[in-house]
């Protein structure tokens, strides 16, 4: 398969997928919108592991993701969103990678338990996918089977919908990754997440009000 997609392009694909997903959620649209949205998290999980491998300052990388997640949670709190946002899930996943690298399996187990108990977006499935993306890089057949298996199990461990199985459709995009970072619009991606949710929520509320 041709390696044509850099990290920047993968992020754009994930953001587009995520936006379509959230439009489907807030406007109560059919499941097709949610299916398209399944592409986003596997790509974000994979890019997190690439960032973890190649960053020169893991502490700064972790704090950037974690603090962004905390800040993003504030508007979600006022929107009465019960889930911890995806950046907090990614930060938790990065801690799991640290635990694996330094063989701190107590930490890894604690993180998996936390992801299962507390309302992190994508929950236990999300952390397992991050771990799989890290450990099974370039072992694409095994990673495909693993991804499908944990997506199936997520219906029972995280109460995710059966449409989570469509997350496997993200793998061809990941397999086309060429190992290059591409353009760096670093803060755009951090700002876009809360901004697009706020805008979509306002528009959906406005549409519901006009229908009354």
Chart the SSEs and their pairings.
Elements: H1 7-26, H2 31-37, H3 40-54, H4 58-78, H5 86-101, H6 105-117, H7 123-135, H8 140-157, H9 171-175, H10 186-211
What does this structure look like?
This protein has one domain. The chain contains ten helices and no strands. Helix 5 crosses helix 7 and helix 7 packs antiparallel against helix 8. The mean pLDDT is 93. It has 212 residues and is mainly α. The longest helix has 26 residues. The chain is 73% helix and 0% strand. This is Conjugal transfer protein TraX. Keywords: Membrane, Transmembrane, Transmembrane helix. Pfam families: TraX.
CA-based shape: globular
Strand content: under 5%
Number of domains: 1
User: How many strands?
Assistant: 0
Total count of helical runs of at least 4 residues = 10
Low-confidence stretches: none
Overall pLDDT, averaged?
Answer: 93
Q: Can you summarize the main beta sheet?
A: none
What does the radius of gyration come to?
17 Å
Question: What descriptors fit this protein?
Answer:
single chain; 212 residues; mainly alpha; 73% helix
Question: Could you give a quick summary of the protein structure above?
Answer:
Keywords: Membrane, Transmembrane, Transmembrane helix. The chain has 212 residues and is an all-alpha fold. It is built from ten helices and no strands.
